Amino acid sequence: MEEPLTELLIQQHFNKQYTIAVPLLKNDRTDYLVMEYKGEEHQRFYYLVKHLFATMKIDAYHIYQGKDEEKIQVFIEVEQLTVEEAEAQLEVISDNLKQKLTKRWKCLPLCSLPEDYNIVTLPYKTFD
């Protein structure tokens, strides 16, 4: 169901009464690449991402905690990439991470998913 975000809805999301998801694609283009990790090595994933992004010279990103402590969401800012371009960039990043850590993350957006399924849950707080 599509509803405009209100202050009340956002507060209910932060209180974990509702889960709010937003679309990543608009007209087959995205402004964000998203990686979501869930697992016991979430701290290691956090530090590996920061190190990898420094070596790849990716500096426009944000790392958040998801609904529970073991879920990390990484949002990488990009400029109007097609879903194919986004998936190609995510594959390079993911391949680099797989050299150091067992893959327990998913990447979005994906070509194989319909536009309505390329959605991401809004984060709950900045990852500490």
CATH architectural group: Alpha-Beta Complex
CATH topology: DNA primase, PRIM domain
Mean pLDDT score: 91
Counting structural domains, the number is 1
Total count of strands: 7
Computed structural class = alpha+beta
The CA-CA distance between the termini, in Å, is 32 Å
* CATH homologous superfamily placement: HP0184-like
CATH class: Alpha Beta
Number of distinct helices: 3
- Percentage of residues in DSSP E strands: 25-35%
Q: Strand order of the main beta sheet, please?
A: 5-2-4-3-7
Can you summarize the main beta sheet? 5 strands, antiparallel
Helix content: 25-40%
Indicate the low-confidence ranges by residue numbers: none
Order of helices and strands: HEEHEEHEEE
Q: What would the principal axes of the Cα set say about the shape?
A: globular
Radius of gyration: 15 Å
For this entry, give a set of tags.
alpha+beta; DNA primase, PRIM domain; 128 residues; two-stranded antiparallel sheet; five-stranded antiparallel β-sheet
Topology:
Layout: H1 7-14, E1 21-23, E2 29-38, H2 42-55, E3 61-65, E4 71-82, H3 83-98, E5 105-108, E6 119-121, E7 125-126
Antiparallel strand pairs: 1-6, 2-4, 2-5, 3-4, 3-7
